[in-house]
Amino acid sequence: MKHLAICSFFAFSFASALETAGVDPLPTPTPKPAPAPAQPKALEINGIAATVNGFVITKKEIAFALSPIVAELSAQFPRRGPEFEKRVKESYDKIVDDFIDRELVMSEFKTQGGKIRPASINEEIQRQVRERSNGDLGKFRQELARSAMTMETYRRMIERQMIVQGMRASKFSDAAPPLPFEVQKEYDEMKLKLRDTTGDRMTFLKIYIPAVDAKSPNATPDDQLALAESIVKKLKEGADFKELAKQHSRDAFADQGGLQEDVARTDLSPEFAALMMDPPEGTIIGPLMDPRGLTIVKVLKKTYGPIPPLAEVREQIEQRVARQKSAERYERWIKTLRAKAMIQKKL
User: Fold this and answer.
1) Half-sphere exposure of residue 78: CA atoms within 13 angstroms, side-chain side
2) Is a pLDDT exceeding 70 seen at residue 180?
3) What is the pLDDT of residues 135-149, one digit of tens each?
4) Which of 4, 74, 157, 319 is packed most tightly, with the most Cβ within 10 A?
């Protein structure tokens, strides 16, 4: 990993997100800043990202929301570079704006005395645990701890998000109701995303290049990255994956040409699993980076987890269709709320 040149504007937010995601940001040579007293990370994590009518949106909330995105991008872009920085910045800006809009809607909600069922909050948290930590609640709590968040704090954050969804639905309840064919069409487009991802399984070929290789003690991490990139180039030019795996891979499956069969998604890191499940079968993926090294993958077969029937998720699908129908009116409403609000983003 070479150049992580993130401008000072986003220095804390991005670094915190990387740390939250469990991604080792070293080695990343950056220009030395002017001498200044070191600030404890705890103070920065609990800093202010923005204020809305006096309500504080903390950096730890933004960092937690950003962390899975940064983890995936960090794996996808081992050398970082402009495209990495651009995508992280875009994600950061969008999350901050979403949180600001959330608080604007919350201000309206407080005057109506609405409530969200605790069971609905529990269901959403369970979904988040599946997506972010492969269903492992212990790992999820560890991720919260790295962002200086408690489960109770996270629960309140989820509750606010759900209140916004409910407020939006009630605000535009006069929109034309979803028609049966619209609901079916939306379900057909969304059902794969609604599946239980912990049931996903994959068969793939893999080449693992460690950051430090005992068989090549003089090779630096940058040398290993260059090697991985050269292997990917050969594969895309038609080289035999299994032969290159036997030659270069440093894991227990090298002798089998890197073949791993019917692997559960939960046995992989969430960011690697997402990058492997999305592209079509047969795509050369990588090199993907984690703190230990680099991975090159060719997925041969994907099996998706259980997809819920329409009857089970109809209400959710109908709400999605209704939101789409009212999107333009919603944006106009939010724009009027922004115009009346006192909003300050902290740089």
Assistant:
1) 25
2) yes
3) 888 888 988 888 778
4) 74
The letter for the amino acid at 281 is E
Token pair for residue 233? 């180039």
Instruction: Give the pLDDT mean for 111-128.
Output: 78
Report d(CA 128, CA 135) in Å as an integer: 8
Any residues with CB less than 8 A from the CB of 169 and at least 6 apart, and which? 319, 322, 323
Looking at residue 253, the DSSP 8-state letter turns out to be: T
Cα(328)–Cα(318) distance, integer angstroms: 17
Domains along the sequence of the chain with CATH? 8-175+326-345 (1.10.4030.10), 197-303 (3.10.50.40)
pLDDT at 305 over 60: yes
pLDDT > 60? residue 6: no
H/E element, 257? none
3-state secondary structure of 68: helix
Q: Are 87 and 10 in contact (CB under 8 A)?
A: no
> For residue 178, is the peptide bond before it cis, meaning its omega torsion is within 30 degrees of 0?
no
141 phi/psi in degrees, rounded to 5? -65, -35
Q: Nearest to residue 66, comparing CAs of 160, 141, 146?
A: 146
